[in-house]
Amino acid sequence: MKTENGKLKKYKLGELMEVTRGMSLSGDYYATEGSLMRLTLGNFDYRNNCFKNDKSKDNLYFTGDVKDEFILHKDDIITPLTEQAIGLLGSTAKIPCDGKYIQSQDVGLIRCNDKLCPDYAFYLIPSKVVRTQLSAAAQQTKIRHTSPDKIKNCTVWIPNYAEQEKIGKLLSSLDDKIALNRRMNAKLEQIAKRLYDHWFVQFDFPNADGKPYKSPGGKMEYNEVLKREIPAGWEVKKLGTLFTTNRGVSYSTKTITGDKGIPMINLASFSPDGSYKIDGIKTYTGEYTNEKVLKPFDLVMCNTQQTAIDFSKDIIGKALLVPDIFEGDITSSHHVNTLNVHDEKLKFYLYRLFNTDYFHAYISHYATGTNIMGLDFAGVENYSAVIPSKEVLSKFADFTLNIEKKKSEIIRENKKLIALRDRLLPLLMNGQVEVK
Question: What is the pTM of this model?
Answer without folding.
Answer: 0.87
